[in-house]
Amino acid sequence: MTPLYAKLLSVAACATALGAGLAAVPASAQTGSFTLSSPDLVSASFADKFVLNGFGCKGGNVSPALEWKNVPVGTQSLSLQIHDPDAPTGAGFWHWTVYNLPAASTGLPQGAGNSPATLPAPAYGGATDFLDTGATGVNGNYGGPCPPVGDKPHHYVFTLYALAVDDVQQAGGIPKTGTASLYAFVLNKGLGAKLLGKASFTATYGR
Questions:
Q1: Distance between CA 150 and CA 9 in Å, rounded?
Q2: 81 pairs with which residues across the strands?
Q3: Lesser CB count within 10 Å: N end or C end of the chain?
Q4: CATH number for the 32-205 domain, one of 3.90.280.10, 2.40.30.40, 3.90.380.10, 3.30.420.270?
């Protein structure tokens, strides 16, 4: 085998491997910016349907639909967190968490956060600050906004993490019942280069 022929075979093998790798990732993940949005929150504010039903609020507590596009190449799972940094707690307030969403998923339908059975396997709802309050029906489910009366509108930050691991709990060495803050540390710092990208948007609500 001549050196030139061997070099051509090597290039062809690399191209084949690269093509196979790209084929495993949805085409939408290969171009454009990684984005997260909600067709239910187009005005960047919450209708009553999505507000908490508890703690003095009388909303429907239905989780809004979410959509995402252009998941980074190499993503093996996605994690979702919703946080209110304006809550008068000194640490904000966690309203919804979902971990180990399939990399091929492109969103969550309206109401997906209201029952663990509606999440796409192997995703699971993690702990929130409504844990054991009964306000969300089942621990870890979506809890809508319900800021104190008279506060300026609070900001609710929806963040989706694209990860090069298929199980964030195992990769981070944390318990499945870990707090949202513990998971947030793992997602933002603990996984290092395994965090491939973040997409977020903010909606507001006041009363």
A1: 70
A2: 97, 159
A3: N
A4: 3.90.280.10
Does the CA dihedral 81-29-24-119 come out positive or negative?
Answer: positive
Q: What is the pLDDT of residues 143-183, one digit of tens each?
A: 999 999 999 999 999 999 999 999 999 999 999 999 999 99
Q: How many residues does this entry show for the chain?
A: 207
- Residue 34 and residue 199 in contact, taking contact as beta carbons nearer than 8 Å: yes
Q: How far apart are CA 87 and CA 154, in angstroms?
A: 7
At 119 the pLDDT is 95
- Let me know: does 67 contact 105? Beta carbons within 8 Å: no
